[in-house]
Every structure is written in structure tokens, then in C-alpha cells.
Design goal:
This protein is α/β, with parallel strands linked by helices. It contains eleven helices and 13 strands. It has one domain: Ribonuclease Z/Hydroxyacylglutathione hydrolase-like (Metallo-beta-lactamase, Chain A). Strands 1, 2, 3, 4, 5, 6, 7, 8, 9, 10, 11, 12 and 13 form a 13-stranded mixed beta sheet that branches. It binds zinc ion. Zinc ion (ZN) binds next to α5.
Length: 286
């Protein structure tokens, strides 16, 4: 059933979707049944301007800190397996929209994989909101046991724990059957529990003032899905890749939830963190 009412009534915020680096991957691995060809896997992050909270980001994409943290073994394995290209910086991307890294007051982190948090050190004044289990994992592992999970703890700011706000401590709100947490108290930024990919994995629900279709509700989905097509066609990643997820069963049911939300809510746009198609479409119309 197609519903025209929003998932949740929210005040509008200003929204910019940014591309901060990319790697390449075989499509056959990222989407079950996909062709064996190399596809671009951009790292997408968001900058959001809230009327009273100021600048907030969702994820950070890659940054120079990724290259510093992977200069030596065993961390070098990460960039050997997934070669990364970076042709911009957080400062340059924020500059284009009239913001500076020092002005970012909060970063909502979908999960702690290197391609989502490499820029945290570039945002010295930001509180860090994420799922508690994610921070616990990334701060308890070192060396090869961290790299095995795609984590690079050396890339995190030294004071990450004192700047951390667990999303689970915020007021819970229901988002059409999913658990959400109201991050700033006015429901404009609602973290959404999207479990499976990594411990504490979350998305962010917001309502944007303008976009390709004149604004509307957006769910930033992090790595709960790698493409709009995977959500539309309910296609999980290939089995060997999905088996590496923290909780493959939960990841499958999260993808089903996204498929259902996408089908049921005409005004909702779901934006996965690595989808070329969604990024082009959003920025062509915005
Ligand atoms: Zn990712």
C-alpha cells in the first residue's frame, strides 16, 4: 500500500549529500546475481544544517587520515584489498556549501568502518553520536583483529570516548516498526536502528527543505544496503560478503524493512552510503 503521509512528522533541515573518495569493487560481490564487472563504490556523507544545532554530519567518508593509518602492515592490508582514491577533502566539500570543519557540532556515525569515519579527526569540535556497541568494538580491538573487521582504531580522535553520545540514551521513537532515537529533541534528526552490517549500525531519518522532488523525507541508510537497486529488488550482497557481516540474519531482515519502507512510502527517499545511482539522481535534481 502506498502511503502519502510521512514516516514521522519532522521539522525541515538543510541537507547536502557529499562524495568523499571512492574505491572500486566487483558488482557481483556487492549485489547477489550482479555482473562480474568493476563498479565505482563512492563514499557518501551528508552535511545537515539545523536551525539551532548548527552543522551536523552523517558519516565522513575517506580523508587523508585513512592513508596515514594504513601506511604500515597489518593496516596496509585494508587498502591493498580495497584501493582508495581521494580527490577532495572534508574542508573543501564543506567550503563549497559555506561551512568549515570547526563549525560541525555533531557527527552521526552509521558504523565505524574506515570509509565512514576517516574524517573524524578533521572535525575537532564535533560530538560523536553512534550506537554504543560500535564504539565498544572499535575501541577494544587492535592490529590485525581490528583490520579483519574493517576497523582502523588509530584513525579515531584520541578523545573519541569523551566526545561520544550513545544514540540509545536519547528518547526512543517508533519509525513504522523500526526503533528510532530523537537525537536533538525536536525529532528533526532521528537515528534509526538498522542492525546487521556492523555492531550498533544506524541510519538517520530527516526531512529536507529541498531536493530533486522539492524536498521530502530522507533515510540515510549507511551500509544497510549498498545500492538503491538492492533495496528495490531485495537483493542482498553475495553470500561470501554477507557472511562477513556482524549478524547476517539481522542484515537480511534490515534489507527487507528498507524494501518495505521504500515500497510503502511514496515521499521517502532512501540513500545508501555507496550508491552511484542514488547520488547522481539526487544531485542532478537538487
Ligand atoms: Zn561502507
Amino acid at each position: 500500500m502506498l502511503l502519502s503521509q510521512p514516516l514521522l512528522e519532522q521539522p525541515e533541515v538543510e541537507f547536502h549529500w557529499l562524495r568523499l573518495g571512492r574505491c572500486n569493487q566487483l558488482e557481483a560481490l556487492s549485489r547477489k546475481g550482479g555482473p562480474w564487472k568493476n563498479i565505482e563504490f563512492p563514499s557518501l556523507a551528508a552535511a545537515i544544517k539545523h536551525p539551532t544545532e548548527g552543522w551536523v554530519m552523517f558519516d565522513t567518508g575517506y580523508s587523508q587520515h585513512f592513508f596515514d593509518a594504513t601506511a604500515r602492515m597489518p593496516e596496509r592490508l585494508y587498502r591493498t584489498l580495497l584501493p582508495v582514491h581521494l580527490d577532495t577533502s572534508i574542508a573543501a566539500e564543506l567550503g563549497r556549501i559555506g561551512a568549515e570543519p570547526e563549525e560541525v557540532r555533531r557527527v552521526v556515525v552509521s558504523h565505524f568502518h574506515g570509509d565512514h569515519v576517516a574524517g573524524l579527526r578533521d572535525l575537532p569540535n564535533a560530538r560523536i553520536s553512534a550506537g554504543r556497541a560500535g564504539l565498544e568494538q572499535v575501541t577494544s580491538l587492535r592490529g590485525i583483529s581490528a583490520v579483519r573487521h574493517g576497523l582502523l582504531p588509530a584513525m579515531l580522535p584520541e578523545d573519541v570516548k569523551s566526545r561520544f553520545d550513545a544514540v540509545e540514551e536519547r528518547t526512543a521513537v517508533s519509525v513504522d516498526g523500526l526503533t528510532g532515537w530523537d537525537l536533538v529533541g525536536d525529532r528533526s534528526l532521528v537515528a534509526v536502528d538498522l542492525p546487521g552490517h556492523m555492531p550498533g549500525h544506524i541510519g538517520l531519518l530527516l526531512t529536507v527543505a529541498d531536493g530533486p522532488h522539492g524536498g521530502g523525507q530522507v533515510l540515510l541508510a549507511g551500509d544497510a544496503a549498498w545500492s538503491s537497486r538492492a533495496i528495490r529488488d531485495l537483493q542482498p550482497p553475495a553470500r561470501p560478503v554477507a557472511a562477513m557481516f556482524d549478524d547476517p540474519g539481522a542484515a537480511r531482515s534490515t534489507l527487507s524493512s528498507l524494501h518495505r519502507l521504500d515500497a510503502d512510502h511514496a515521499d521517502l527517499t532512501i540513500l545508501p552510503a555507496h550508491c552511484v545511482e542514488a547520488f547522481r539522481e539526487w544531485n542532478a535534481g537538487a
